[in-house]
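Quick one before lunch.
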Amino acid sequence: MPIEDPFKRQIAMRALLRYKICRECGARNFYGATKCRRCKSKNLRPKHEKPKSR
Ligand SMILES: [Zn+2]
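Model of the zinc ion complex:
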């Protein structure tokens, strides 16, 4: 899906990269989440620890 507006594309990229992974079950969670939505674990890590520059 090509997005031509570079500003919108930036927002979309950020939204896609901003999530947390559960260390217990590997589920994706909302970035601001403190608990896993699947297993209720608080053992979450952010997805983008070192964002790649493209
Ligand atoms: Zn989990």
